[in-house]
Amino acid sequence: MYGMVSQNKLKIFNDPVYGFINISDPLLFDVLEHPYFQRLRRIKQLGLSHLVYPGALHTRFHHALGAMYLMGLALDTIKSKGNHIDDAETRGALLAILLHDIGHGPFSHALENILVPGANHEQLTELFIKRLSPINPEGFNLALDIFRNNYSKKFLHQLVSGQLDMDRLDYLNRDSFFTGVSEGVVGYDRIIKTINVVDDRLVTDEKGIYSLEKFIVARRLMYWQVYLHKTVISAEMLLVTILKRARELAKNKQNLFATPALKQFIYNSYHYSDFENNPKLLDDFALLDDFDIFTSVKVWCDHQDTVLSALCTRLIKRKLFRIELQKNPFDESYISKIRSLSSKVLKLNKNDVDYFVLLGQTENNAYDPGVGNVWILQKNGMICDMAEISDQLNIRVLSNPVKKYYLCYPKEIWDENKK
User: Fold this and answer.
1) pLDDT tens track for 60-74
2) Domain map of the chain by residue range?
3) Residues 6+ away with beta carbon under 8 Å from 270
């Protein structure tokens, strides 16, 4: 663990989305240099989306830097409009957004609750922030309070995690840039210039409503075109299934190649309390990244277990499962037919079929009132929910979650089904 913050660490990063990003606080640079944070260079922002969009190879490290940059712009804007934010609060908010994703495991959301079934990345993020706090106890304690929404100025948390936070503003622009999906581009600069604080609530000026409408629509489109693209779902479900099979083999005491860090999390099932009771466990988790997973998957292609071997070979060779996506649950008779064909064509027993016929559902909620509203400060001084005054599109419709059901299975089963 680091001791005192060293001086003369004013650095500049050249970001492909925003240009030059200045790191003007030595404490922030010490965090950037820490091994916990450097690990984010080895965790892809979009999981396996690069199997659909080849350019989507950017990392959580990129995203965290970008979100911190936008936070700096937002704080400057809020201050310029007469709202008081002192230096300690500025540092706390920048730390909170910089570290907001530090608890992510390999392949980000794709393997959420798979390697650590009993803890999500937000819980692990809190543990990482606590672990880093000896660097600067006052700064990190404030950052943790802001992250948890325990700080008195609630708008600071809304900038970190809310309907219109710096996390979303960055990932929409950044993911659009690297995937080439132009529908995700939003006017982040104009949105930030219109934000304000009224009665400890984050609001935006009425003149920014058209940029906000574009933001909501862009988020919806990016979910269906990128984050929940059907081929991305197929690829990530295949990876999840591989890890489930590996865990099943580990449970039965079969020998599996894995890096030491990965082996620990395959052969054991940890919960949040385990991390609280065993401080070393967080250090072990901090050794995990995408390379641990894919190195093991490559080796498992030759494993004696035919199910694990077949699944891994499909992923490595990008022979992904066919996926059907629809608004209503699949008919049980159709599922049974696909399972029966899979068993016949692939020569699988009843239990192993479950690794090749995958069912699930996914949901897109572009405007989610559950994480807070987008408040508009009208010219008459009234504050209204964006959904109430938007005249260009019906935001209320976008606030209703759209659920879709999927069925994944090997493409050769589809060929057999058509006969």
Assistant:
1) 999 999 999 999 999
2) 11-229, 231-362+406-418
3) 116, 117, 118, 119, 281
